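Run Sugar phosphate transporter domain-containing protein through structure prediction, thanks.
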Amino acid sequence: MKEPRSDLCSRYIKIFIVVSCYWVVSIATVFVNKSLLSSQKVALEAPLFITWFQCVVSFTICFTLSTTGGIPGIFVFPKGTPWSIEVIRRVLPLSLMFTLMIATNNLCLKYVGVPFYYVGRSLTTVFNVVFSYVLLGQATSSKCIMCCGFIIFGFYLGVDQESLLDSFSLLGTIYGVVGSLMLSLYSIYTKKVLPSVNQQVWLLSYYNNAYSILLFLPLIVLNGELTALWNYPNFDSTYFWFQMLVGGLCGFAIGYVTSLQIQVTSPLTHNISGTAKACAQTVIATQWYNESKNILWWTSNLIVLASSGLYARFKQVEMEEQSRKPVPEEEKSLV
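Sure, done. The structure for Sugar phosphate transporter domain-containing protein is below.
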């Protein structure tokens, strides 16, 4: 039976609202973090401490929701504790990847401009293909490999144009590449760890933030941030703590709206939405920071964006074709 027109309309309205929320929260999170990490008003040379505080905020929210069971009428938060020995043994290696991922992402954002941020972290797809083959033995089609080749070319062209425009940061680009690598590893190993938490993404996020609070402490010391924190004069500033709190809330909110967008649409639609959002984010950033870019710089962004979108589409088609193949009788479950 066809879906009633009123139900279909309300469904489209819901999808529009969720996707809009994802765009607003995601773009706002990048700008808030950039302000925290590089703004002269904040002027705190302790990017890992800022990231650590965001984990504290996310952990506090998750702990509260786990205690109360969630928000009535909106969503149910799964029960669980991160301090179980068995949970620590299974989740802690993944939490280490999570910690390095968000640390390098924020370090990348500190040293590169928001317009270049997406291109600087664009190699995640390439690393996904490499690690899927090396770690999981999964081959990739020639069309997807071609997309990866274009992504690498777009990344190289973007780096080249950034250097010509005197806005290139080698350190920021290195952090972006390492962040892409860690995100790829995190995505692959998440599939292995999720069964340990009953496939509960929120529970895994709760545990990751709990362990990251502890894992960040030695990284903060090794990065030499204790001196910067000791000499920082604005710890009594309401503006500073307000912006830190907003950054923490954005960090938690992006996880929620990402999961919600995938739930009401599909993983493919989420990838396309994320790619389009990155394009809008780049345009907004160039206007916000009054940055003038040449044609080749914009071309590098378009190559990366288009190649990433095509890669997502090709993978989706491959998955659909694979799902339609008949399963041999000996591989079918007796149940």
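Residues 330-335 have pLDDT under 50 and may be disordered.
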